[in-house]
Amino acid sequence: MYVWFTLVAGLAVVALSLLRTRFPYFSEESAYILRSLGFGARLVKYKKVRPFYSIVDRFLDAARTHPAKVFVHFEGRDYSYGEVDQRSNKVARALQAEARLQEGDTVALFLANEPSFIWIWLGLAKLGCPAALLNFNIRSRSLLHCFSCCGAKVIIVSPELQDAVEEVLPSLRQQGISVYLLSDNCGIQGVNGLSDKISQASDQPLSRDLRANVHIRSTALYIYTSGTTGLPKAAVITHEKVWAASFIQGACGVTAKDILYINLPLYHSAGFLIGMTGAIERGITIILKRKFSASQFWEDCRKHNVTVMQYIGETMRYLCNTPKKDGEKNHNVRVAIGNGVRTDVWTEFLNRFGDIKIRELYASTEGNIGFINYTSKIGAVGRVNFVHKFFFPYALIKFDIEKEEPVRNSEGLCIPAAQGETGLLVGRITHRTPFIGYAGNKLQTEKKRLRDVLKKGDLYFNTGDLLRLDHENFVYFQDRVGDTFRWKGENVATSEVADILTMAHCILEANVYGVKVEGHEGRIGMAAITLKEGAEFDCADTYKQVVNYLPAYARPRFIRLQPSLEMTGTFKMKKVKLVEEGFNPAHITDPLYFLLTEKKTYVPLTVEIYKAIASGEIKL
């Protein structure tokens, strides 16, 4: 018997060793697939159950199960699940009384990162009201556009954002929009104080009948994305998509015992969906910050026993750029969830701060396809397996960068990219993987649909991103195509920036694009411009326009004066060559200018300034 036991044990060890050698990611893949199947089964259940069980119902269950558990910690104050539940009840009742809200009414939230953001959204959700999450960096024309395209008749504003709303108040009044400020009172005509109404309202639970008609395909949110062109677009987020995004934490191995650190903006899908609603789905505690601080990050993690962090590529780089200290691995962070980290930064981050499981994602707010790197493979944004491919059908197709369009064969069909070859990622649009599109923007919605991809009559979502699949089925992000680039974790729409530039009295045309800067994530804004006849480049006026109308991340830091702008045969501005040439004055004969923040103007870009940027002496 002993001999047989020894023999079986030996064979098991050999088999396991062979399995690990031939399939090095078997255990991680198996665990991920099992978790994913579990979440998939839950989503199917939620589609069928009546009445519909939403993420708000999940929150209410958590508030009943552990009312005293801390849900949000913010600036020294704890807010339990029970307290947040009561506060959201008060919000809902106050808005019922003051704004006469009913199920289906959209409300725009123009709020900073603070706990009130969460309970105001919960209050609206309890009434069955979709929320439009406005980027608190936008101003003027962009703010009006974002507000109007979601069809909201009510906007709720943080006191620190009052000035931005005052700028557009005449237009809001003209449209009959109700404006509520989170203060007890307000002396501005047309702006109503809301905080006192909330404090006086009842905190008793609300009837589920108030959201009786909400179902899994109902609109839950509008989250804004620059997409590929134009002003920001309101991506329609259904309750199904909220659930799917909330499962990402669980798919990455987060449990109910974890503590999550959120320093990303709640108006973004990362902070709101993956972070906040993911925390509700797991029933965990959030440490919420107004904004990211590299100097406070690890101190906060140690102080609050943080075990899960969120990041964007810039976050990692900023942390790696902080001065080295003793005991940098002395923390409890075990999982980091995010996207956009460079391979070199990824490696340095692990070397400095310890064995943290980096769960790099690929996804887009409005998209129907995404990947998760559930292994520890550095540099990959995901890994493809048969379960993923079944539930999320996609293709990587050949793409002509010069023409900015897919390559098609003689039959008019797209050509699949070979393994190891960079291709355009497209996700098949099916009932299970829909593409809802953008509110009030049929044109841009249609532009994201790609027909006749692998066979006549099929329909795919065009991500606008170039990816590569290697021989081990790891997926790598290569680049973004079209008229968008990413800087400081934000999408920048080139046509919006170009529109603002041409408001300067000296500029005739502008071709905006993103250029790489050594040591930085993404691409920074640059514009090739032509001047009106007889005009000279007005540094001060151009600076005034970009600062008044664009958030800091979207302002073009480099300007290139050209006698004319190159066009394609279909009159599209050529960008590829300009992107490749960059902004080195030693190689470019055209006049170059640099937005120098300290002097509040554009200045001629000299070799000295270029070297100071390259060395990091000038911060971007």
From TrEMBL:
It is an enzyme of class 6 (ligase). Residues 497-572 form the AMP-binding enzyme C-terminal domain. Residues 61-383 form the AMP-dependent synthetase/ligase domain. Its EC number is 6.2.1.3. It is found in: Cell membrane. InterPro entries: AMP-bd_C (IPR025110), AMP-bd_C_sf (IPR045851), AMP-binding_CS (IPR020845), AMP-dep_synth/lig_dom (IPR000873), ANL_N_sf (IPR042099). PROSITE patterns: AMP_BINDING (PS00455). One of its GO terms (molecular function) is nucleotide binding. It is a multi-pass membrane protein. GO terms for biological process: long-chain fatty acid import into cell. It catalyses: tetracosanoate + ATP + CoA = tetracosanoyl-CoA + AMP + diphosphate; a very long-chain fatty acid + ATP + CoA = a very long-chain fatty acyl-CoA + AMP + diphosphate; a long-chain fatty acid + ATP + CoA = a long-chain fatty acyl-CoA + AMP + diphosphate. Keywords: Cell membrane, Fatty acid metabolism, Ligase, Lipid metabolism, Lipid transport, Membrane, Nucleotide-binding, Transmembrane, Transmembrane helix, Transport. GO terms for cellular component: endoplasmic reticulum membrane; plasma membrane. NCBIfam families: PRK08279.1 (NF006134). PANTHER family: LONG-CHAIN FATTY ACID TRANSPORT PROTEIN, LONG-CHAIN FATTY ACID TRANSPORT PROTEIN 2. Belongs to the ATP-dependent AMP-binding enzyme family. This is long-chain-fatty-acid--CoA ligase. The lineage of its organism: Eukaryota, Metazoa, Chordata, Craniata, Vertebrata.
